[in-house]
Amino acid sequence: MKNKKLINYITKVAIFSALSTVLYVWVKFPLPFLFPSFLDVQFSNLPAILAGLALGPLGGALVVIIRTLGKIAISGSGTMYVGELADLLIGLATVLTTSFIYKFNRTKKGGVIALIAGTVVWIVSAVLMNWLFIIPAYIKLMFDGSVMPLIGMCQSVLPNMNQDNYMAIYIFGASLPFNTLLATTVGVITFFVYKRISIIFKKDFIGKGK
């Protein structure tokens, strides 16, 4: 019986992980009329959050970790692993916050509170990661210490960015609104699809056997 439960759990984690990896690697698109073109809209956190709600914090965290490793194995890293590390940490913060809150209050109200808290944590962690890690790392590792390439990539939508204000302009003109839009969209979709998903994932995914 324990082996059966473990196999079912692993199967469900694998399904969520596969879906999250597909969304992370292939299903993404920019909004160049609103944000810098290197900011891709992608919904890979959606299956991870659903896994966290359905399977608990460990299940959600495993999906985030597996999808990150899967992305690196499939397509490598064009960002010197800066983007993947940032996505990993933001994903873990979001999924663990949402799933831990819901774990102790498994009601519709508890789910709403969990999703709101997860959305806020996503936005705050993304802004902090960009300010403290992502932008400084990109400038040092990918742009040889020069901020000018970043400014050039952003000026079509952030024309006031320059060497003196690039961080503030990027954070408040790109990172904050982009992650607010993405996190809110994922939270709303999760609210409407979770019940249907949870019914499916309450079922065993292997035969009963003897």
Number of strands: 2
Distinct helical segment count: 7
Give the SSE order as H and E letters: HEEHHHHHH
Largest sheet: 2 strands, antiparallel
How much helix, percentage-wise, in residues? over 70%
The whole-number mean of residue pLDDT values reads 93
Q: Would you identify the regions where 5 or more consecutive residues have pLDDT less than 50?
A: none
Q: Tell me, what's the shape?
A: elongated
How is this structure best described in words?
Helix content is 73%, strand content 3%. The chain contains seven helices and two strands, in the order αββαααααα. The chain has helices at residues 2-25, 45-55, 57-75, 82-103, 108-141, 148-154, 166-201; strands at residues 28-30, 40-42. It has a two-stranded antiparallel sheet with strand order 1-2.
Annotation keywords:
single chain, 210 residues, mainly alpha, two-stranded antiparallel sheet, 2 strands, elongated
